[in-house]
Amino acid sequence: MKTKRLIQALERVDAWPAYAQDELAEIARDIDESLAKGEYEPTPAELAGIDRGLRDAADGRFATDAQAEAAFVKLRSV
User: Fold this and answer.
1) φ and ψ at 9, to 5 degrees?
2) In whole angstroms, what is the distance from residue 76 CA to residue 25 CA?
């Protein structure tokens, strides 16, 4: 079973250059390996993003309700 968003993404992949397709394949392989292990290991970039988010939260930097809704609207339209 494929989600609608995955189907849409895969339809666009055919038009990508080979290097971008290879990068996507590597990401998919990494995800598949993590799922097979039953655990997920975040990348250094993901860990850095988590740390930034935690620092921002500790400093009281939060999006307004309107900003959050605008982000959700944008994500839903992809």
Assistant:
1) -65, -45
2) 24
